[in-house]
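seq as requested:
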Amino acid sequence: MTQWPGWRSLLFVPADNERLLEKAGRRGADACILDLEDAVAPGRRPAARAALPEAVARLAADGVAVLVRVNAGTRAQVHDLEAAVGPSLAGIVLPKVEHAHEPVVTDGILTDLETERGLEPGGVPVIGMIESARGLLAAGELAAATPRLAALALGPEDLALDLGGTPGAAVLTEPARRVAWAARAAGIEAIGFPGSIGNYTDPGRLAAELETAQGLGFSGALCIHPAQIEPVHAAFAVSGADLDWARRVVDAAPSDGAVFSVDGRMVDRPVLLRARALLARGERQRAR
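struct tokens:
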């Protein structure tokens, strides 16, 4: 299974927009996704692919974790992956996944490219985006399709459209819950929130949607605007109080695995494991 790097915010940047690419490394996101899909007109994709290796290397040299969102469909995806795969690539975002064979095909192409280019096979993680009712119903199979899959992402705009609604809590909370369940069952991460990714001017609504996502078990979110980064980090941060509690729980744990108490509350194995997970998240957070 691919190790999740602990990204909380992943900022989309159009792969053909040099002005935004130049600013991307200074935005403060945990990772940037150079987008070859929705953000780039079909006629501009060949030029965007040609410029992609230099853009990925330049951002990575500045300390940015760089992913690339490829296009759905094998033919376009092969061209995208050929342009994207290199030593500076931190991951691939696979859109509109609906069937378990799709990430498996992507895995195979990536393995071939990694081998050809002297990279570690299996080293490039993949995030699969759930953006349709079909994808939602297949989320469990998708999450377990390949060890290369590191996370499932909720694609709120396309998913809400396919479900016949608008991207908000009423339409997306239950799908978000299903995505989180599927991801956790497969031992991978869930990222996203049950609201419009296009909302960057209503911080109160965004904060509420992020709080819901965090409560459902999501660990990060996709962003399309720098204004979303700080709220995302705040929502998925491990607080000082949580870290203090987790340290006290771990420090008090008996070596024989017996039940014990902290702050007048019983601590058994699931609570101890949650404390350890919080400490691990806190370590990743401090490393950023």
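The chain has a mean pLDDT of 94.
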